[in-house]
Amino acid sequence: MSLRDFGLLVLVCLVWACNNIISKIVVAHWGVPPLFYAAVRFAIVAAVTARWLLPAPRPAWRIAVVGLLMGAGNFALLFMGFKTASPSAAAVVVQLGVPFTTMLSMLMLGESVRWRRGLGIALTLTGAVVVMWNPHGLQLSPGLWFIVGSAFTGSLGAVMMKQIEGVKPLQFQAWVGATSILPLAALSVLIEPGAPAAAIHAGWPFVAAVLFSALVVSVLAHTAYYGLIQRYEANLIAPLTLMTPLLTIGLGVAVTHDHFDIRMGIGTILALVGVLIIALRRNQVMPLLLLTRNRSQ
Predict the structure, then answer these.
(1) Cα–Cα distance between 113 and 115 in angstroms, integer?
(2) Residue 54 within a domain
(3) How far apart are CA 171 and CA 295, in angstroms?
(4) Which of 38, 62, 200, 297 gives a 20 to 30 Å CA spacing to 70?
(5) What is the residue range of 107's domain?
(6) How many domains does the chain have?
(7) Please, where are the H alpha helices in 25-141?
């Protein structure tokens, strides 16, 4: 990999990590309801990428379902999780998306898993459990449950996306935005009364945050990352994206004052080593997962 492209990948991972912190601040500190925040984000994405919406990939129903899973499902649950979960804990728990994708690939695509990937799955699951553990037992807070749900919906969408051919990055973003606006807006109206007022109260910082999330993260960073995947082996790119959770943890400790102790450190190491083992094996679904894991992105 050239130094220029490596620097671009570092920048992309930093953008994704910053977005995790910003999302936490928006929903937890500024009090903007998460569904409303997600709806505004995808409305902007849909408006910017509308020209790439048609012609629709075939079958159209599948890309619509994928858009819902990776948009309304993935990000709504992620933002809801950030209400109570710290960015550091979320960055580790969301790595469950990698073993989820592997297991769903076995069920839906007929892929086989050898002992190395099985070990990676076990390590990732163990690391996530360690992060959620406290002296009184397993602490499955509502926020972390939402993060687990976000990881699963993103994984299911990634596996279904593998069954659609010829979708370009901006076309994918267009469908994610278009299919997510109405369900997110409707749910926000139903269960988040006063959401627009909360956003107005947050003021220009909210406008800047949602524009960053929609334009810089969804449109620019994801497109740049997809270009890197096209130029280099996924087995080279995928492990390097582990910079994102590490940067998120560092920024979380520094900016949002996340609690990070030895237990969190052990859980993080176990989870990331597990993800690395899984990612180092060739897997055509993995780039799709990493593209959307915006993950906590």
Answers:
(1) 7
(2) yes
(3) 19
(4) 200
(5) 3-292
(6) 1
(7) 34-49, 60-68, 74-82, 87-93, 97-109, 115-131
